Amino acid sequence: MLDENESAALWNKTFLNIFPEHDGHIYVGEPYRDNLRRFYRARLDSSEQEHIETYIIHGINRHRNQFKPFEFLHDGQWLRVASMAVPGCGQMRIWTRIAPPALDSETLANNMARHGKAPALSLIDDIADGLMVRDFKGEILFANRRFCKMYGLKSEAESVGKSLAWIVRQCWDGAPGSETAVALLADNLQFAGAPFVLALPDDRWIRVSEHRAPDDSGISTHTDITDLHRMQRKTVEAQSNAEALAASLRQLIDERDQAESAMRQAQRVEAVGQLTSGLAHDFNNLLSVMLANLERLDAHEADPIRRHRLSVIRGAVDRGAALTDKLLAFARRQPLQPSAVGLAELIADMLPLLRSACGGGIVVNVDVADSVPAALVDTGQLELVILNLAINARDAMPDGGTLTITAWQSTLAASPDPETPAAGDYVVLDVTDTGTGMSEAVQARAVEPFFTTKPPGSGSGLGLSQAYGLARQSGGTVQIESTLGKGTSVRVLLPVSALPAIASPRPPPPVADDAQVRVLLVDDEPSVLDVMAELLDSMGYVVTSLPGGRAAMQALEDGLEVDILVTDVRMPDISGPDLARWLLERKPGFPVMFISGFSDPKLLDGFGDNCQLLRKPSRSKEIQAAISALLQRGREVATAG
């Protein structure tokens, strides 16, 4: 038994009886090549000792590759040797004494070599193997018919006086492998009794074994083992293919597991996003009622103490509106106004604010080149994301540290991962700190809204979720790399804008005098409908309020005359966009203002300049400015017509 390193592990007495030269000279852990070296030294004469290393190499190769049992003659006794791999242990080699065959090439060759007894030529020609006799110089004296057929000779006479190497070279002259076969013959024919395999150029394989006579002549047998070798080769190929198939299957299973994990994560985030957007919508309705009532009260309040208290309440409403902005950013449902934003200029303008927010114990480094292309993103939302990431980094470095903001362009390839954006060019905004870092469990939940590791009162858990929502809604994503004790890198990937960065924002439209304008107000939430009607009425508008799209359609069909439609977007019977389309089919160019807590700006696609989207909650000045802008635009169109 040989272990996996081809070293002796164990043996029995029968082995030593068959090979007595090993008795007392074989050791546990001894490499098989050392065993072969001792075996050959006991058998080789002085002229053959110089070839011992070559014989060892061939012996090792036979040990590794010869798994099919074969028989050979050794010191007058016939042996069968077989090898068997033992998984986890190594390889077992088994020698068995067998009865001599009735007539075989090995026995004939051995008898001829030892005793000079040659049987009748007809008997030699009848054996299945090739048999060749050469003199001490290597020239062939005799070859049987089977030998000539193996090597492509027309008759036995063609071989006489030639060497086996000459025959191989002539028969396959110029064919790939012929010179290798000749070199193999030159090495192996020096050693009597050691069978070796000769690879012929036409994909055939011959096992050669030579027996040496006292006068140094040689009698060799040649057995065609092509079928056996091809079978072994196919077995190896099949095993290799099976291993490759198993590896491919393991890879497919791993990829499937990763895809399923990514899908589960995406579904979980999507489910949280849907729940979040619904809550934000209802919350915005409540905030709209509160803000509208606050503005009505504030306008008629003379007591400074009461005005101060109303101001405090209004501040709380503003913070609530900012909170819903973050929730809707995560849910990817807040209306954005994407534009081409140059990160170098944006971060340079924010740098004083960032350093102030981080405090004196944190060094803020910015490395954003002017050559970084503009990103397509909502400027205000991106500023809020950068500020939130800086504050998160500050909180992760209570003892001070370094905050580094960099940006570069990257090209993403297509990926089956649902969290990877489409292939294309992106701007990567990287915010890296040297703080406490995150564990893998925390990273897995980092973008969930309200998830935070900060103590109560120290954070809402919406900073990363807002960054994630903004990036996904903008067509990008967020990647987080973090190591406990070494810091965190948050990378926001945003699409590259096809347009150059906008130098400065456009001024707001002027507010016109629109007293006595007839407004049709539509909302399915009674409290919002009532307070918005009162607010519009206080601005001087003539308001007709209806609790849904179907009621509005009926009123308009019955002859209701209005100058502008102000409608909620999501309503249970008929949505605001469907109501607007119905109205515009009858009155093209009619001004429509949508008011909603969350809406995709794409809902305005196809409506033209006569429609506008305003977010809840909105102050009275914002509402009045939006209505005035729509009416003014309508007047300009009418004048031009």
Quick take:
Helix content is 44%, strand content 21%. It is α+β, with helices and mostly antiparallel strands and 641 residues long.
Largest sheet, in brief, is:
5 strands, antiparallel
Looking at the structure, the CATH topology of the largest domain is: Heat Shock Protein 90
CATH architecture of the largest domain: 2-Layer Sandwich
Unreliable sequence segments: 455-461, 504-512
CATH class of the largest domain: Alpha Beta
CATH homologous superfamily assignment of the largest domain: Histidine kinase-like ATPase, C-terminal domain
Which structural class best describes the helix and strand composition?
alpha+beta
Number of separate strands: 21
Tell me the strand percentage band: 15-25%
